[in-house]
Each structure stands twice: as structure tokens, then as C-alpha cells.
Amino acid sequence: MADSERLSAPGCWAACTSYWRTRKGFLLLTEIILCLVILICFSASTSGYSSLSVIEMILAAVFFVIYMCDLHTKMPFINWPWSDFFRTLIAAILYLITSIFVLVEKGNTAKIIAGVLGLIATLLFGYDAYFTFPLRQQRHTAAPTDPTDGPV
């Protein structure tokens, strides 16, 4: 996944800084920051919608640490690309639904900002879901049409 883009790094801080420079690391870091800003906006206006931001921020941070420390290669019993794909797909759908509800209700300024940022989060999580789609990453090679071992 993002292993081919990462530089070799011996320490924890070096591994973190080299991982967030990859496309997947930058996406996860942006998701964490955007969820934090949305959480602050929802907390300032109403606490009813803040649980989505908390859960997605924690999940993005967990996946960031897992990919940064190469734990996905040490735990092969979990299919990490599919788990990450479903996390981002569900987050995009839930942020879209939540943002539409928040923008239709017409609350104060913080609530409207949270709704608009939720739509931006929908686009970000949707792009991440498209980028991490596991079947998109598989490379297919053409099968040989002629037998290579001679005539039968």
C-alpha cells in the first residue's frame, strides 16, 4: 500500500515524519485534523453530532499508527486494505448524511461551519476510499497464449 512510498526510518519520530509524507499518511493526518476541527465546531454549537467526529478521528489515528509502525504486515490475520476501505466508505456516507441534516436545521454559525466542513470531510473520506480500494491496487498481467514448453 503506502510501503513503497515510505523511506527507511530507524526511529519512531523519523518513521512518523517519513510516513506522513506519503499520500496515505497525508490523507490520514488530514482526516484526523479535519475531524478535530469538526468536533470543535459541533461542541460549540450542539453535542448531538459530535460522536461521529470522535469515532472517525480515533479510527484514523489508529490506522495512522498501524501503517506508520508497519503493524499491518505483522498482523496478517486482519485484511487491512479492506478494513481501511470500509472505514473510509462508511465515514464518507455518515458525514454526508450528518452534514445534510445539520445544514437543513439551520443553526448558529458554528453549526453551519461544521456542516460545510462535514461536506469537505465527505469528499476527503470518499477520495481516501477510492484510493484504498483493494481491487484497484491489484495489477493483472496477461496470460500467455502460446505454450512455452513446445508442442504437445
From TrEMBL:
Give the gene name: PLP2
Q: How does it sit in the membrane?
A: Multi-pass membrane protein
Name the major location. Answer: membrane
Q: What does this protein do?
A: May play a role in cell differentiation in the intestinal epithelium.
Q: Which UniProt keywords apply?
A: Membrane, Transmembrane, Transmembrane helix
Pfam families in the cross-refs: MARVEL (PF01284)
The record's listing under PANTHER family reads: MARVEL-CONTAINING POTENTIAL LIPID RAFT-ASSOCIATED PROTEIN (PTHR22776), PROTEOLIPID PROTEIN 2 (PTHR22776:SF4)
Native organism is Heterocephalus glaber (Naked mole rat)
Keyword Zinc on this protein? no
Where is each MARVEL domain found?
Answer: 19-137
- Annotated transmembrane regions: 26-45, 51-73, 85-104, 110-130
Give compartment(s). Answer: Membrane
> InterPro entries annotated for this entry?
Marvel (IPR008253), MARVEL-CKLF_proteins (IPR050578)
Organism classification:
Eukaryota, Metazoa, Chordata, Craniata, Vertebrata
Report what the protein is called: Proteolipid protein 2
User: Which cellular component appears as one GO term in the record?
Assistant: membrane
